[in-house]
Write a sequence for this structure.
């Protein structure tokens, strides 16, 4: 009802908003929400007339991406508070650096009752103590998620912060080695009692990458959290073969973290624990046998990335004793082969997410039973060099067998061919949203046109290093054969060697896509072949190192209102025309990478910057023609910028960077290696 009312208002005053929406204004909720995506302060007087309550506005904003909600909050006070309510309902994580400027922001976040924060760069300094004090005082009472990843805070500061957060359900202490170095954390009886009251509702605990974590400190901390459902010990120094206790039941070693003690914990928490991450540990097959057979343990998620000692037999045992798994990550378990994949297909019928990346022994035979995984939504086969996708194509070709895959990755699978991409695109059209074909060097324009024709709902598309893609493919135009019928010399491949027998360059400029006229482009749009522009819902696009792409296609098809991330790095033929077209056609961009595009100049950035108001991360390293004028335009227009990489930009000096940082002093991190024409050979 609210959306219909909104549409009626838009129809009455369409002239007020026609400048911010390319779609025709119709009385449908979808168009109303699309129109809201383009909200800007200039629209304020019009939107202020809408008689909506805060609850109705909050509901409408819940359909929009976070960046659009931030823009909508600028309309007036009602829209501002409605936007804050919408953000709070989704538990958005706020990053708070340990700087003096964060103190005022913390008080502002307290008024919004923010429940999820990440504190970065904490140490023993006075500023860090002030930030901890402010968070404890203003945010602590209603914090539900606290991330301290990589911090170097003291035990006293940690306990002060912890005791101020009685409602915590998630705590991330990964990489906080200073907390565990002395081994005295929670050593006093009175602090244990206080911690138990603070962590009584804790469900998720991340202890990854803690080199000083021992059985004693692990027991003290987990003993305060009786309701843990998720635990991560990734990259911790767990001992599996050595038993330091030799039959003793007092597992409180202060020197090491043992698998025997972990088993004791699992037995005690078996009724509540649902997710476990042991990535990067040296877990063995006997240890896996003991883990999966813990009485009452019913895991739903298990992450075992880079556990290189795991065998096929261990995975078979896992599938037999933990059949309720919905997510399994075996990326980098190098000893696994087809037998492990077949065991997964046969034993884990409820699986929704499966990651088998970097399994060099895995072949297409391992997917003979994948039709059994009817609930599978995510499949990652990146860097499986012997996988061509042929078995997956067979399964997906049968409607009654194919899973409803929403995410599929074949990155670095060099055996993948156009025929497989075409079949998968046709079969997975209703469900697929994320597709990663990075470094699939054999795919050509046939694949990109199949994707554009059959996968219009894609939100993420990665095609980095697919060097056979050309302008023809992105434009959706059939490539013409320019080979001369009568060629005097033999044709050699690059593998034969550089002997000067390559074909001469194209001579028919009228057929060269670099000079494609607007009339020819409009005519091609009337044909049935779809261009990349058909992917209207794209939020991320990676075309890095697709070196045959030029201004001809980029200026015509990179026009995606919802696009958030774009990589056009290592495209040497791109000029200012592409930069300006991208900026105007993708005004929601938050991350843009155009490194080593040597033809970009200051003129392009001066013209494009005003259309990149939402930009937060910009990479333009190796763009040798850029000077301080580019930095001046960016600092003036891109006020939300958080990081900038101008490494190896010879025309930019350290003085230019210092001036830029002075204009954006609070939030911008600048990477400036080898700027100002530094001699790389000498410096390196």
């Amino acid at each position: 009802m609210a959306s219909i009312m909104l549409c009626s208002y838009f129809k009455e005053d369409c002239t007020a908003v026609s400048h911010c929406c390319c779609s025709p204004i119709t009385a449908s909720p979808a168009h109303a929400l699309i129109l809201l995506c383009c909200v800007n302060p200039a629209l304020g007087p019009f939107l202020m007339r809408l008689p909506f309550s805060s609850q109705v506005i909050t509901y409408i904003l819940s359909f929009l991406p976070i960046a659009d909600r931030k823009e909508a909050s600028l309309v007036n006070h009602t829209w501002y508070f409605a936007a804050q309510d919408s953000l709070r309902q989704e538990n958005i994580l706020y990053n708070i650096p340990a700087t003096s400027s964060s103190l005022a922001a913390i008080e502002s976040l307290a008024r919004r009752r923010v429940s999820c924060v990440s504190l970065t760069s904490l140490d023993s300094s006075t500023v860090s103590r002030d930030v901890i004090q402010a968070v404890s005082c203003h945010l602590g009472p209603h914090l539900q998620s606290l991330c301290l990843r990589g911090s170097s805070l003291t035990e006293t500061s940690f306990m002060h912060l912890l005791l101020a957060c009685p409602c915590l359900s998630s705590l991330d202490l990964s990489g906080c080695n200073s907390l565990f170095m002395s081994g005295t954390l929670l050593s006093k009886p009175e602090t244990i009692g206080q911690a138990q009251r603070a962590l009584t509702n804790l469900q998720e605990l991340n202890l990854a990458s803690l080199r000083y974590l021992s059985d004693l400190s692990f027991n003290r901390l987990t003993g305060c959290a009786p309701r843990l459902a998720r635990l991560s010990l990734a990259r911790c120094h767990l001992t599996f073969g050595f038993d330091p206790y030799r039959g003793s039941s007092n597992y409180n070693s202060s020197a090491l973290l043992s698998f025997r003690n972990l088993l004791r914990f699992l037995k005690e928490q078996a009724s509540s624990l649902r997710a476990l991450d042991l990535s990067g540990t040296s877990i063995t097959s006997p240890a896996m046998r003991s883990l999966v057979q813990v009485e009452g343990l019913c895991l739903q998620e298990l992450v075992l990335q880079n556990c290189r000692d795991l065998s096929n037999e261990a995975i078979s045992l896992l599938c037999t004793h933990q059949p309720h798994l919905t997510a399994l990550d075996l990326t980098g378990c190098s000893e696994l082969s087809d037998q492990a994949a077949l065991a997964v297909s046969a034993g884990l019928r409820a699986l929704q997410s499966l990651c088998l990346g970097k399994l060099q022994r895995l072949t297409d035979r391992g997917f003979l039973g994948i039709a059994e995984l009817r609930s599978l939504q995510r499949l990652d086969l990146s860097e499986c060099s012997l996988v061509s996708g042929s078995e997956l194509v067979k399964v997906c070709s049968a409607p009654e067998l194919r899973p409803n895959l929403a995410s599929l990755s074949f990155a670095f699978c060099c055996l993948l061919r156009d025929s497989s991409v075409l079949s998968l695109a046709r079969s997975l059209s209703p469900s697929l949203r994320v597709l990663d074909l990075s470094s699939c060097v054999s795919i050509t324009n046939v694949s990109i046109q199949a994707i554009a024709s059959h996968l219009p709902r894609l939100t993420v598309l990665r095609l980095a290093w697919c060097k056979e893609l050309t302008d023809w493919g992105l434009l959706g135009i059939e490539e013409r054969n320019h080979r001369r019928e009568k060629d005097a010399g033999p044709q050699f491949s690059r593998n034969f060697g550089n002997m000067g027998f390559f074909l001469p360059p194209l001579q028919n400029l009228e057929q060269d896509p670099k000079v494609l006229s607007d009339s020819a482009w409009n005519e091609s749009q009337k044909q049935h072949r779809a261009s990349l522009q058909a992917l209207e819902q794209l939020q991320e696009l990676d075309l890095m190192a697709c070196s045959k792409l030029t201004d001809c296609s980029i200026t015509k098809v990179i026009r995606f209102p919802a696009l958030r991330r774009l990589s056009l790095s290592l495209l040497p033929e791109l000029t200012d025309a592409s930069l300006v077209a991208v900026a105007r056609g993708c005004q929601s961009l938050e991350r843009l990478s155009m490194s080593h595009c040597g033809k970009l100049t200051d003129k392009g950035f001066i013209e494009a910057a005003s259309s990149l108001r939402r930009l937060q991360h910009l990479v333009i390293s190796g763009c040798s023609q850029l000077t301080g004028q580019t930095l001046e335009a960016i600092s003036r227009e891109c006020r939300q910028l958080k990081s900038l990489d101008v490494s190896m930009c010879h025309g930019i000096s350290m003085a230019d960077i210092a001036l830029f940082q002075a204009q954006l002093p609070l939030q911008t991190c600048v990477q400036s290696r080898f700027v100002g024409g530094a001699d790389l050979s000498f410096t390196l």
